[in-house]
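#structure-requests
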Amino acid sequence: MVRTSVLADAMNAINNADSMGKRQVMIRPASKVTVEFLNIMQKHGYVGEFEVVDDHRSGKIVVQLNGRLNKCGVISPRYNVKIDQLEKWVTKLLPARQFGHIVLTTSAGVMDHQTARRKHVSGKILGFFY
């Protein structure tokens, strides 16, 4: 079967391992977008340390889970989101206003929606986690 989205497969593996109570999960193949998404999740404390293993193929990522994650997902297709439309996506995707994060890819890099609002940049929506 053809792999359509590496990021969606990674988030699905993290969701499944976390719901089973596992302490770590291995994601393959690795991608730069997946690493940036995990960096944001780690910055907010939803996952622990992670290590990118280069196996001279597509690479692997070993993620330590801390059990704080409820759900993470990917939005496909990657919709364009303007700054004034961001609140609509927050109410659509997140369970509460102060709870969870939406990840955007912008011209200033991959960031969560609060940082994008502070920097006054818009971009395409990648996914969410809470």
